[in-house]
Amino acid sequence: MSSQILLSGGDKYYSYSGIIFGDVSVPASISMITIDNTGLKDSYVKVLPYYGQPQSGAGNTALGIEIKLDNISIYNSQRVDPDNAREWPPEFFAPRNSKLEIISLNTSQNNTQTRGVNLIGYYL
What we know:
Jelly Rolls
């Protein structure tokens, strides 16, 4: 799990989870990134999730993500082909001093599928 890293200019931050996967004991959701405080300015955030090859093509095996700001869900998507979704990748505004969390959503049939997420935030 990664936290916020400021870029040298101080006007942007980024975070990345690395590749995450599990086994059959992995829970239905996995926290991938947690930033306890986004900083002293509002920011525009772009999230770039990625997924490995699914174990099967069944519709009930789609990985997804949930994004929370201050423990309130602002985005929740779990679909077979996220590349064709209009709202993909998620972009949103984060108020200053927000807690930001990105969670991987699983089903019992895709716990071993690899996934990860990168994000970049631009201070406004």
